[in-house]
Amino acid sequence: MKKLLIASTALIATSSVVGADVVNGVGSSTVTLDGYGRFGLVHDEGFSSDDTRIEQRFRLNVSVLSVTDGGVEFGGRIRFQSDEGNNGGGVAQNSAAEFNVESGGFRLDVGNTSDVLDSGDVIDYFGNTGVGLTDFGEISSNFVLPVSGFGTSDPDDGEVIPTVKARYAVDAFTFAVSYQADSRDGVSYEEFQIGVGYQISDNLKVGFAYGEVQNVTGVNGLNSNLTDDAEFVAIGLHGSSGAFTYDLLIADIDIDGTDNVDTAFGIGLGYDISAATDIRFVVSDNGVDNNDTAYSLGFRHSLGGGVSLRGGVGEDDGGDTRADLGVRFDF
Q1: Rg of the chain over CA atoms, in angstroms?
Q2: Are 195 and 165 contacting, i.e. CB atoms less than 8 angstroms apart?
Q3: Where are the membrane-spanning stretches (predicted)?
Q4: Which one of 10, 133, 135, 326 has the lowest number of neighbouring Cβ atoms within 10 Å?
Q5: pLDDT in tens, 27-68
Q6: Would you list the DSSP string of 39-90?
């Protein structure tokens, strides 16, 4: 009992600091916890075993921020996540660390961090109209582009290839560049991306990105859709008008030795039926020969307090029916 009381007291003392500022002179330090949980049912005709399964995910982000007396912000983040299908039977996996420095309109991210495409700095690559509890239908679903982002990994994945990304925002423009390189198992890997975004108005944003990837083959399955060297361009548009929200993404990639990939496109539409409920529709074509165009239709209904009921149904690029339904709570 004594040990239990001591442990409880320590936990209460620690939790009181989470989310609070610890002031040291002019500067300050902050530790915050955020994330989400979701659970429900998923139906996938293309799934390797049962067509219908239980879906569950719990994600916890731990973020820290220290501000110098001069106002420069130094931060870091790690993630813990448990999924229904990951190794370990749903046991939570953790991530490598992300570090960042920010001052004025400039920000530098280093480590396990997103590249230009994944970060959303200049292009809403996944869009704001994802369908389903699991967002199985997005404007970039199954696009053949080299995208790497912040996240957890299975123990067998080995080390995460570090990324360096710089972003600068001035007036309505945002400029971003990212780079990552590594060599393992005798195979070198190098990726470069650059992009610019422009906020036309409060309700309309457009972005452009260009990237190159070299010698991707054989690097622990990373970007396994690509072979040899490749370069790409992508253009994105996100906007809203009244109750409507829309996303557009067009991408073209040139892969050495491959001629079966054409221009890819994705269109997402959302409509607010009420203050609590919206419906959304997505069509996505990854441009790969012999792949179908994917369609999906879904809804979200807010239950209040960061809790929402979500679901959708559609057809993926393999022609298989997909559907899900469940609850998500954000914290």
Answers
A1: 21
A2: no
A3: none
A4: 10
A5: 789 999 999 999 999 999 877 666 888 999 999 999 999 999
A6: EEEEEETT-SS-SEEEEEEEEEEEEEEEE-TT--EEEEEEEEEEESSSTTTT
